[in-house]
Amino acid sequence: MSANKLRWGVLGCAGIAIRAVIPGTKLSETGEVAAIASRGIEKAQETAAKLDIPKAYGSYEELLADGEIDAVYIPLPNHLHKEWTIRAAEAGKHVLCEKPAALTAAEMEEMAAACERAGVTFAEAFMYRYHPRYAMIKEIIASGEIGELRGFHGTFTFNSAGNSNNVRFKQSMGGGSLYDVGVYPLTAARMILDCEPEAATMHALFSPQHDNVDMMASGLVEFSGGVALTFDCGMWAFGRNNLEILGTDGRIELPRAYTAGQDAGDNFFVTTKSGRREVEVPRVNQYALQADAFARCVLNGEPLPYSPADAIAGMRVVDACLTSARERRRVEL
């Protein structure tokens, strides 16, 4: 490990890694992508050549055995997150794991314990939380401009139902819309309120055509003080990706709430009785910011903004939502 660069290895050639995380990490101030692995050497070599990555491995084990790799990013299907996080930790690698980090809170507790035993850093890859617009939103809320918080409404939907081979549609691989996109509004409300919810009630469409995973889900998540998150998420619905924060004296509207790019579409809007204003945000790459925050923790000992304990708490909420959807009842946390 050099004094100012973290050497990353990537376990798998998933689309999110190729499209976003690897390019973002290469734009970071503190990271370099040094190796990529796949289950076959051809795929690894093809991806390495495409993205100018120095090393390619035909197995995940080979990459973990490379002493020149400091940290790994894991974009594997959800059901493999636990195994490869633990194996990476045991190999002495720091771990950035794609969301959802686990399938249950119990799995996440095992992963966190393994990383703690090995003395390595662990983080769940919710890139949107590193975008400065969320700090700006929290400052506006703290200023009192929109009054007391009354509620949140979040959406994240898309339609890929025709792709029968999608791992998101396989129960055994951790498929379903709550795991895939519902976790975004759930984490956003928890992050902005800086507290954990008290109960969840969900209704979902479990589709026999898609291995009975939840292809659409709508929910109510209760926080203290009468504040609630209402949200919906889906993989078989028209695309939406928004967050509204409602106060007694105004509201904040956040388009493209979780998939910010680097253009004017990332601005947000504040509406009060004085009118509606657009708040301009910095043009940044949130994947690069995520990589830098992780590297500063590893290289300089700076605390992570979101600890393994946060990932465990987040999975408890997902557990409650899935139980509620399956059993058609309110679940207390």
UniProtKB/TrEMBL annotation:
UniProt-listed Pfam families: GFO_IDH_MocA, GFO_IDH_MocA_C3
Q: GO: which molecular function terms?
A: nucleotide binding; oxidoreductase activity
- What Enzyme Commission number does this protein have? 1.1.1.384
- The stretch of residues making up the signal peptide is none
Give yes or no: UniProt keyword Repeat: no
Q: Where is the GFO/IDH/MocA-like oxidoreductase domain?
A: 134-253
The question of whether Disulfide bond is a record keyword is answered with no
Alphabetically ordered keywords of this record: Oxidoreductase
The Gfo/Idh/MocA-like oxidoreductase N-terminal domain, residue ranges: 6-124
Instruction: Extract the PANTHER family matched here.
Output: OXIDOREDUCTASES, TRANS-1,2-DIHYDROBENZENE-1,2-DIOL DEHYDROGENASE
Q: What is this protein called?
A: dTDP-3,4-didehydro-2,6-dideoxy-alpha-D-glucose 3-reductase
According to its UniProt entry, this protein's organism is Paenibacillus solanacearum
